C-alpha cells in the first residue's frame, strides 16, 4: 500500500481558503463562490472562536508541510512565509479579544453585511432568490455581532466613543435613507424582478428592522456604557494592529520620524507647484482651494463616473505593452458610484476568481455633483490603473501559479496600499501628470499619506510633536490636534477630514501602510536595479513583482530585491 503524500504549503493554504469560505460566506462572495450567495457569517464570540480554531489547525498543518521535500522551492517558500505571518497576526488580534469591540465607520461586521450586497450577483431570478435568503440572514448576523459587543462591555473592552457615535449615525442613515423610514436594503431590492417582489420587499424590511434594533441598542446601551473611554488605543494595542495591517513588527518611532521627513520634503514640492497655479499663495492649500472654484472639474454624478472610466481605459491603453504586459481579462475594470452612507474615501473591489465580476472602483459622492479634476486623477491611478486593479487582478490571473490564498484572502494591507501609492508615483515618473493642477493634486494626496503616518502613530501613542514642526511644536498629540493638523494639510472638505480621523481611530495602524508600503516597494525596486545594473528591465520587474502574490513589508523588500 502506498503512503499518502503530505501536503506542501500551497496545498495547506488552499485548503485553508476552502475552510474559511465555509465559515465566512462574505469572503466566499468576494471570491465568486456561488454557494455563499445566500449566507452570512457568524459574528458571535462562538463564530470568532471557530475562525481561531481553523487558524491554529492550519498553522499546525503548515509546520508539517514545511518539513516536506520540495517545501524550500521559491513558490512554496513564499506561500509558507505569507501564510505563517498572516495567520500569526490574525491569531494575536483574536486572542486580544479585539473582535469584541469592533466598532468604526468603515470596517465592522455591520459594514460587511451591507457591502457584500453590492457585489452579490443579481443577474437572474435565482440570484435574486439568494439575495432574499441573505437578507433574511441579516438579523442573525447582526445579533451575533451585538452578542460580541455585549461580551466586550462585560469585559470592559470598549470601542472609542467617537467611532461609536459615527457608527450610530451610519446605522440611522442605512435604515432610513429618505427620512420616511425606507432603508438602504429596500432601495437595493427595488430593481429586483417583479416575480419576487413580495419576497424581496419583506426580506428587505426584515433586514432594515435588524439595523434599527442594532442602532437602538448601540445608542441606548453601548454608547452610555463606554462614555469617557479613550478613543486612542495605546502602544501595545497599536503595535498589534500595526503588525496585522503591515505584516511586520515596525519600529513605530522610526516610522513616525519618517512621516515627518516626508512631510517636509512634500511641502517644499507643493509650494513649487502652487506658485505655478496661484503666485504668492500663502500655502499650497490656498492654491488648491482656488482650484476647487476655478480649476478643471466634472459636473454631474453620471458624468464623473464615465470620466473616471475613460481615465482608466486610457491608462490601460498607454501602459499595456510599454510598462506592463496585461492579460485581456486584467484589462477590464469598471467605474462605479459608492452607495449612500459609505465612508468618504474612494475604494476598490477586486474581481471574482473567475473574472465573471470585474474589478471595480467606487467613488463616494458625499452628496456632491461637482468634482474637481485635480483631486481625481492620481486617486484613480491609485484605486484603478495601475494601482489596486492591476495588482489584485494580476494576482487573480496568475492564481494557478501561486496559491488561491496568496491571490485572494492572504493580502497584506500595506503591500496593496503601498503598491497603489507607488503606482501614483510611477505615473508621475512616467510623465502622465501633465499640468500643475494634476501634479499639485498628486502631491496633496502624497501629503495626506505622510500626514496619516504622523497623526495615526502620534495620537495613538501620544507622542511629542517635533520642535521643528510648524504646528504646535513640543506639544503632545491628541485626536483633536490630529484633526486640526490634518485639516490644515489637506485639500479635503471638513466632512472628509472628520471621516478620515474617525477611520484612524477605528482601525489603528492601517493608514500608515500607504506611505510605509510605498517605501518598501521603492526600496525593493532600488535594490533590484543595483543587482541588474544597466540590464534592469522595469516592465519585466513590474510584472514579476505583481505576479508573486502578497507579502508583509519586510518579506516584500526581500523578495522584490531578488527579482
Note the overall shape. globular
Proportion in β-strands: under 5%
Helix content: 55-70%
What is the number of E strands?
5
- Radius of gyration (CA) equals 23 Å
Count of helical stretches? 24
The biggest beta sheet is recorded as:
3 strands, mixed
Q: What strand order characterises the main sheet? A: 2-4-3
Q: How many angstroms separate the termini? A: 43 Å
Mean pLDDT: 95
The unreliable regions are none
Structural class: mainly alpha
Run of helices and strands: HHHHHHHHHHHHHEHEEEEHHHHHHHHHH
Describe the structure.
The protein is mainly alpha-helical and 563 residues long. It has a domain at 241-514. Helices cover 62% and strands 3% of the residues. It has 24 helices and five strands. The strands form two sheets. Strands 2-4-3 form a three-stranded mixed β-sheet. The protein starts with 8 loop residues before the first helix and ends with a helix. The model has no long low-confidence stretch (mean pLDDT 95). This is DUF885 domain-containing protein. It holds the Pfam family DUF885.
Topology:
Layout (H helix, E strand, L loop, with lengths): L8 H15 L1 H7 L13 H21 L8 H22 L13 H7 L9 H12 L1 H17 L6 H15 L8 H6 L7 H30 L7 H13 L5 H26 L6 H11 L2 E3 L1 H19 L13 E5 L9 E3 L9 E5 L6 E3 L4 H7 L4 H10 L6 H4 L5 H17 L6 H26 L17 H10 L5 H13 L6 H20 L5 H9 L6 H10 L1
Parallel strand pairs: 2-4
Antiparallel strand pairs: 1-5, 3-4
Protein name: DUF885 domain-containing protein
InterPro entries: DUF885 (IPR010281)
Pfam families: DUF885
Amino acid at each position: 500500500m502506498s503512503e499518502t503524500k503530505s501536503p506542501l504549503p500551497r496545498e495547506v493554504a488552499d485548503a485553508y481558503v476552502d475552510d474559511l469560505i465555509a465559515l465566512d460566506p462574505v469572503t466566499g462572495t468576494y471570491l465568486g463562490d456561488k454557494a455563499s450567495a445566500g449566507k452570512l457569517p457568524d459574528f458571535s464570540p462562538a463564530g470568532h472562536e471557530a475562525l481561531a480554531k481553523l487558524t491554529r489547525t492550519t498553522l499546525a498543518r503548515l509546520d508539517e508541510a514545511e518539513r516536506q521535500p520540495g517545501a524550500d522551492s521559491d513558490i512554496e517558500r513564499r506561500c509558507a512565509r505569507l501564510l505563517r505571518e498572516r495567520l500569526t497576526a490574525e491569531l494575536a488580534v483574536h486572542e486580544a479579544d479585539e473582535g469584541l469591540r469592533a466598532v468604526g465607520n468603515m470596517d465592522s461586521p455591520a459594514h460587511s453585511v451591507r457591502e457584500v450586497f453590492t457585489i452579490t450577483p443579481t443577474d437572474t431570478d435565482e440570484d435574486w432568490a439568494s439575495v432574499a435568503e441573505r437578507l433574511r440572514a441579516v438579523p442573525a448576523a447582526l445579533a451575533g455581532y451585538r452578542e460580541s459587543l455585549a461580551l466586550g462591555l462585560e469585559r470592559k473592552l470598549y470601542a472609542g466613543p467617537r467611532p461609536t457615535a459615527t457608527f450610530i449615525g451610519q446605522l440611522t442613515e442605512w435604515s432610513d435613507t429618505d427620512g420616511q423610514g425606507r432603508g438602504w436594503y429596500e432601495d437595493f431590492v427595488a430593481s429586483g424582478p417583479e416575480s419576487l417582489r413580495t419576497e424581496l420587499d419583506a426580506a428587505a424590511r426584515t433586514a432594515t428592522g435588524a439595523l434599527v434594533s442594532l442602532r437602538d441598542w448601540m445608542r441606548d446601551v453601548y454608547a452610555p456604557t463606554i462614555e469617557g473611554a479613550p478613543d486612542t488605543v495605546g502602544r501595545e494595542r497599536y503595535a498589534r494592529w500595526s503588525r496585522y495591517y503591515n505584516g511586520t513588527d515596525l519600529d513605530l518611532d522610526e516610522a513616525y520620524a519618517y512621516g515627518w521627513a516626508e512631510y517636509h520634503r512634500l511641502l517644499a514640492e507643493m509650494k513649487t507647484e502652487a506658485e505655478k497655479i496661484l503666485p504668492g499663495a500663502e500655502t499650497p492649500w490656498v492654491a488648491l482651494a482656488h482650484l476647487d472654484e476655478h480649476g478643471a472639474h466634472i459636473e454631474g454624478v453620471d458624468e464623473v463616473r464615465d470620466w473616471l472610466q475613460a481615465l482608466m481605459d486610457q491608462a490601460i491603453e498607454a501602459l499595456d505593452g510599454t510598462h506592463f504586459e496585461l492579460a485581456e481579462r486584467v484589462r477590464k475594470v469598471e467605474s462605479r458610484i459608492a452607495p449612500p452612507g459609505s465612508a468618504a474615501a474612494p475604494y476598490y473591489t477586486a474581481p471574482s476568481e473567475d473574472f465573471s465580476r470585474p474589478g471595480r472602483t467606487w467613488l463616494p459622492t458625499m452628496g456632491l455633483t461637482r468634482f474637481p479634476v485635480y483631486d481625481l486623477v492620481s486617486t484613480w491611478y491609485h484605486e484603478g490603473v495601475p494601482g489596486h486593479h492591476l495588482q489584485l487582478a494580476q494576482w487573480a490571473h496568475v492564481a494557478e501559479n501561486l496559491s488561491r490564498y496568496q491571490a485572494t484572502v492572504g493580502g497584506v494591507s500595506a503591500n496593496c496600499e503601498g503598491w497603489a501609492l507607488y503606482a501614483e508615483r510611477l505615473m508621475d515618473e512616467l510623465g502622465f501628470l501633465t499640468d500643475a493642477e494634476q501634479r499639485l493634486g498628486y502631491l496633496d494626496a502624497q501629503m495626506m499619506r505622510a500626514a496619516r503616518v504622523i497623526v495615526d502613530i502620534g495620537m495613538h501613542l501620544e507622542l511629542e510633536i517635533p520642535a521643528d514642526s510648524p504646528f504646535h511644536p513640543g506639544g503632545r498629540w491628541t485626536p483633536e490636534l490630529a484633526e486640526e493638523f490634518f485639516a490644515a494639510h489637506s485639500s479635503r472638505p471638513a466632512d472628509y477630514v472628520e471621516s478620515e480621523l474617525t477611520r484612524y481611530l477605528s482601525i489603528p495602524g492601517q493608514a500608515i501602510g500607504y506611505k510605509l508600503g510605498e517605501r518598501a516597494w521603492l526600496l525593493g525596486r532600488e535594490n533590484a536595479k543595483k543587482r541588474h545594473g544597466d540590464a534592469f528591465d522595469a516592465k519585466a520587474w513590474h510584472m514579476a513583482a505583481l505576479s508573486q502574490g502578497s507579502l508583509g513589508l519586510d518579506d516584500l523588500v526581500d523578495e522584490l530585491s531578488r527579482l
